[in-house]
Amino acid sequence: MFQKILIAEDTYSTNEGLEISLKDSIPHIDTAQYCDDALLKVKKAIQDELPFELLITDLSFEESHRDRKLTSGEELIAAVKKIQPDIKIIVFSVEYRVGKIQHLLEKFQIHSYVHKSREDTKEIKKALIKVYEGNTYLSQDVEKLLHNSDNIEDIEEVDLYILQLLSQGIPQKDIPEQLRKNSFPNYRLRSVQLRINKLKELFEANSPAHLIAITKDRGLI
């Protein structure tokens, strides 16, 4: 198991809770409530030739009276990767948008993404084991989110336009006319309703309003 890790989290109670839950399995746990402080600790550990093996970081850090160079977990990850490319990284955040999660996985090759939830302590412990073994780990809800989003490639341009019209408050009965005005001439009300039902099924939405909320959260509209 990891011997030395750093937790970057601006909420003291979360920092303390993680430290308490992990201290039995990890002998050296350091914490930081500011991204700048976390980066300094990483630099100092490298200088001392006792580098951290793992960084667990939130993405959002509240503003404070302090002047800050790094204001987000993403900026911290980028800065840490520049000076210690081989460090393992677990993101631990309430952020739940597909685009953001995929961006972190693809751009920074993070090793785990755990969504803050009721079971997040258990998920962090699972993540530690998987990442230590050389695997990538996503918490169950994130795994499901990304799996469902794999089908987004099946969404056509007309589907996105229908979602945009719904989000603007356009009634379903008026959508065919709007489609005809924008180079989608072959859609009647029944066709529009079928597409909306398909989208509701894809995103597990129970109403058009719920569908709009989900697709907005995922950055589709």
TrEMBL record:
Entry superkingdom: Bacteria
Keyword Phosphoprotein: yes
The entry's keywords: Phosphoprotein
Record PTM 4-aspartylphosphate, positions in chain: 58
Domain Response regulatory: residue ranges: 4-131
InterPro entries membership: CheY-like_superfamily (IPR011006), Sig_transdc_resp-reg_receiver (IPR001789)
Organism: Aquimarina addita
Keyword Phosphoprotein assigned: yes
Name of this protein: Response regulatory domain-containing protein
